[in-house]
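re: ur msg from earlier - yeah i can do the FE2/S2 (inorganic) cluster complex, just paste it... oh wait u already did. ok heres what im feeding in:
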Amino acid sequence: MVENTKIIKQEQIGVDLYRMELQTSMTNQAKPGQFIQIQVPGMYLRRPISISEIKKDSLVIIYKVVGQGTKRLSEMEEGQTINVFGPLGNGFPIEQREHVVLVGGGVGVPPLYETAKQYRAQNTKVDVVLGFNDKEQIFYEEEFIKLGCSVSIATMDGSQGTKGTVINALKERNIDCDCILSCGPLPMLKALQNTYPNGYISLEARMACGIGACMGCVVKDQQGHAYRVCKDGPVFPFGKVVLS
Ligand SMILES: Cc1cc2nc3c(=O)[nH]c(=O)nc-3n(C[C@H](O)[C@H](O)[C@H](O)COP(=O)(O)OP(=O)(O)OC[C@H]3O[C@@H](n4cnc5c(N)ncnc54)[C@H](O)[C@@H]3O)c2cc1C
Ligand code: FES
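and the outut:
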């Protein structure tokens, strides 16, 4: 659905990082791992941003300022309205499981929050492993802990937690599981797929239509079959598509 939503909260929570809460009626349809496309005033193409939390009457997004669109978004104020299209794509599966491991890198962390919330609501043990470049970039550690997750941090420069990647943290903490749900940079997703047999990755792509019509966000499997990140994903099982 397309809806004019009201910005009910806009706050900076880190370096170039913002948390925005949008009052909307699409909460009933939204699932963890899905995304919305935001019509930033003055920008032609909508910007895809993951749903980070689904509340009764609002959706929370967390976004990093990387260019003009996200800069303008960060300048919008509480009380203003913004046009949103969604919820879009296929999210993370929420299944009856005893244990899941959620792995996020940088701005791949936001969609894992609602995923963790829903797994914790059914009493699943949730290990969360978050990777960042340095400790200044870390966000949402406390929020995951409050949900009852066990949280491990990896930083590339070793300024907090395990020095290195999320894979180093998984090994150091002896975390193993038959279901890993992940979102983050491509090298991280590739390393996870190469190390663990079962799980899901959430992919990013440059997007235009967001509904599977323009084929602008295509990835392929080993046989060359095309999948649209916006409609067939953004969440795919490990090994389904070739990561290049
Ligand atoms: C399904 C999906 C979910 C996303 N969820 C989030 C989220 O929760 N939080 C968040 O901060 N960002 C998220 N992104 C990325 C976000 O869409 C882009 O950062 C944003 O569109 C950039 O817009 P801009 O106008 O500020 O930057 P632009 O001026 O368009 O680009 C600035 C820089 O960002 C890169 N970039 C732009 N769009 C993308 C993209 N879609 N994927 C990868 N790199 C891009 C460009 O190559 C360029 O280097 C998501 C992307 C997708 C596809
Ligand atoms: S953005 Fe148009 S098909 Fe995915």
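cool cool. The pocket of flavin-adenine dinucleotide (ligand 1) is lined by residues 35, 47-50, 62-64, 66-70, 107, 110, 204-207, 234 (CB under 6 Å). ping me if u need the other ligands too
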